[in-house]
Amino acid sequence: MDEEYKVRLEIFEGPLDLLLYLIKREEVDIYDISIERITKEYLSFVDAFKILNIELASEFIVMAANLMYIKSRMLLPRVQQPPEEDVEEEDPRWELIRQLVEYKKFKDAAGFLQIRELENENLFLSKPDVSDLGAAVSDQPEPLPDVSIFDLIRAFQKVLGRFDEEHSIYEIADENFTVGDKIDFLLAEISHGEKIAFFGLFELASSRTEVIVTFLALLELIKLNHFRVQQDGLLGEIFLQRSENV
Amino acid sequence: MELNSIIEALLFSANGALTSKAIAEAIRTTVKESDDETLDDLAKVSKEEVDIGIKELVLLYMEQGRAFSLTERPAGWRICALPEYAMWSKALFPAAKPARLSPPALETLAIIAYRQPITKANMEAVRGVAVDGVLQKLLDKNLVRIAGRADLPGRPLLYETTDLFLDHFGIRSIDDLPNSSELRQVPLPEAESAESKDGQPVETQLAMPAISGVEDPSMLTARNQRDLRDPDSLKESDSGEETQADEHQTEEHQAENAPEVDETEDHHEEQK
Predict the structure, then answer these.
(1) A101 CB near a chain B CB, below 8 Å?
(2) Residue % of chain A over a pLDDT of 90
(3) Has this prediction a pTM greater than 0.80?
(4) Residue B261, φ and ψ in degrees, nearest 5
(5) CA of B173 vs chain A CAs: smallest distance (Å)
């Protein structure tokens, strides 16, 4: 993969966000998560980020270690304690669950704030002063506002998985794909306002590298607001729409 | 003259927000300075009566099918167009872009809102990830500000939400946030802020975050009283942090520029 155009993606989501995302996706009860399954999925996500060469905050690695530690504790046999002793038989998952539950409450509160934010946008006050309007205007592009980065990574994993299945014979390709090339390609291929399915972008990919590079190019274009990402409901298909005015 | 009509007129003439208290005062003043005896029953109009009057006006507007209503903000009552007409009003402000926050920003903001004043470390403990970038954004947008230092090793900075935060989300006060009682547990008792000037126990202050929208002046802490009288002092302490590397330098810079904050801390230490 060419290093000349490195996609810089600042991911402000943390390991707790990822865990909550996984829990929601699996539709499991947060109080009774299967540590083994969650750990496996968590690690596969961390792996995907590594393939994409996206820098992941160290907290993700710390959480990975934490998950594996909890998993190992769950595997140990429960020691039989005599009844009088003050048994500290804590579920090894408990601290993590507690942290997740607390964080989820704040996430829900943030959801409320988001609704209020939208509602408030529609309240036009008489004699507005500057602070009513422009103070919080953001001039920097906000990355991925509609669909979470984890949804995109998951879709990417699917594409990569599908690709590996279909192309079991490895070809030594002479091509050198750069992220810059793919960005030009995407901008040329998809016209303003046009909408295209995520998976459609990778149909013609002939190598694993091409899949990866195309995805990175897409991320960069999303970050720069050339594309908007939409998802058909929770865990639905992902669509990309080229912005009109950029 | 009908009280409600007078209230209505005042709301229209006001330059921005108007509290029911200010309305009551204005009316009482006018009556006092006037010789007209027919106005005498308004001489002692109270804030509570004004509140009732305002609620009646809101109902009246709804019954009449008017395209506007009244909304209460931290700074007082405002006339506002109904949200149904938002798409029309937008045309008057073509340049204004919707100022929406990203989910991580909202989450960090929620943590600060419920647990203020709070240190960066505590925020990160809840979120499980560093908050530097997001926090800087929130400071830049003036949705949060620095509220002194915690009495912990390293004297880390404490953060709280601003009035602009309440305004941006159209909420009257922190108490109006959902699930308030559950999420607003009293944080670490060691945290101290610049407000301890009146010698109030620190725990009490943490339970009632000092938002200057609070009506009762005795609940306003020293710092906020200063803020309301002198907006310049607020600007100085709001210079916020620059980058991590500059943080130390900026903190010292702030220490020089915000003598009132330092005085309070010295005063507090002397009291010890």
Answers:
(1) no
(2) 7
(3) no
(4) -65, -45
(5) 13
The residue segments making up the domain with residue B127 are: 103-271
Gap from A46 CA to chain B (nearest CA, Å): 15
- A117 contacts B102? CB cut-off 8 A: no
Mean pLDDT of B98-127: 88
Residue B89 within any structural domain of the chain: no
Which CATH number do you get for residue B127?
Answer: 1.10.10.10
Give the pair of three-digit tokens for residue A50.
Answer: 């590594």
- Nearest-angstrom CA–CA distance, B189 and B78: 38
- Return the structure tokens found at B93: 């402000």
Cβ <8 Å between B141 and A136: yes
Contacts of B14 in chain A (CB under 8 A): 127
B114 with B91: CB under 8 angstroms? no
Residue A35: which residues within 8 A CB-CB, separation 6 or more? A67, A70, A71, A74, A93
Which residues of chain B lie closer than 8 angstroms to A109, CB-CB? 110, 113-114, 177-179, 183
pLDDT tens column, A182-229: 888 888 888 888 888 888 888 877 788 888 888 888 888 888 888 888
Among candidates B98, B114, B128 on the partner chain, residue whose Cβ is nearest the Cβ of A59: B128
Examine the pLDDT at B214 and tell me if it is beyond 70: no
Structural domains in chain B (count): 2
Residue A44 CB contacts under 8 Å (≥ 6 apart), including other chains? A157
* DSSP string over B153-222: TT--EEEEE-HHHHHHHT-S-GGGSTTHHHH-----TT---TTGGG---HHHHHHS---TT-S-GGGS-H
Rounded (5°) CA angle A222-A223-A225: 65
**Chain B closest CA to A62's CA: distance in Å?**
10
Contacts of A120 in chain B (CB under 8 A): 168-170
Give the span between the Cα atoms of B165 and B141, in whole angstroms.
9
Q: Please name the residues between 162 and 181 in chain A that touch chain B, using a CB distance below 8 Å.
A: none
Tens digits of per-residue pLDDT, A118-151? Answer: 888 888 888 776 555 444 444 444 444 567 788 8
B1 pLDDT band, cuts 50/70/90, is low
Topology (CATH) of A146-246: Arc Repressor Mutant, subunit A (1.10.10)
B163, pLDDT greater than 50? yes
Direct distance between the N- and C-terminal alpha carbons of chain A, in angstroms, rounded to an integer: 28
If asked whether residues B192 and B116 sit together in one domain, one would say yes
Q: Is the pLDDT of residue B66 over 90?
A: yes
Average pLDDT over residues A53-80: 84
